[in-house]
Amino acid sequence: MEKEEGTDEGCFYLSPEDSLARSPPFSPLRDKLVFLSNEKGFDTHGDCMGLSIMDWNESEIFSKRNMLLVDVVGTPKVDKEGKMLFPGLFVDRLPIQCFSPNNMHTYLTCQHDSATKILKISLEDGSVEQIHVNNDDGNK
Fold first, then answer.
1. Cα first-last separation, the chain
2. What is the Cα–Cα distance from 24 to 45, expressed in whole angstroms?
3. Which of 5, 19, 57, 114 is the most exposed place for a label (fewest CB within 10 A)?
4. DSSP letters along 102-113, please?
């Protein structure tokens, strides 16, 4: 049997264009695979990652390509008031159960401004929304 490009003794690369790819949970329906990715890689741990998605169909796996949902942010942009906009994904791994019940979003925690934030990311267009948690327990 001739070895196919992108394979290694029964295994194959899901993202040969990435220097780094990690933490690939399946959606509850097992029809999507999301993973953290970075094309260039980096010298230290904890740098900015992208988020990629792949439609999963085992019979067509060699013809599938991943889609980058959230790109790696090199230098965060600022708005007119000087407030930093989305700084990127600084996350080591995705939660195993990171998918929304409707399979349309993924949730993760990320480090922004020296604090842990909860992010909701659309699996359709990669839009990122920060989830704000009310810590007020009603006791004053």
1. 72
2. 18
3. 114
4. TSSEEEEEEEET
| pLDDT tops 80 at residue 46 | no
Distances (CA, A) of 105 to 30, 32, 111, 121, 122: 14, 11, 19, 5, 5
The sign of the dihedral angle between the CA atoms of 43, 25, 130, 127 is positive
- Coarse DSSP helix, strand, coil percentages of the chain, rounded to the nearest 5 percent: 5, 35, 60
CA 7 vs. chain centroid, Å, equals 23
Mean residue pLDDT of the chain comes to 81
Tell me the Cα Rg of the chain: 17
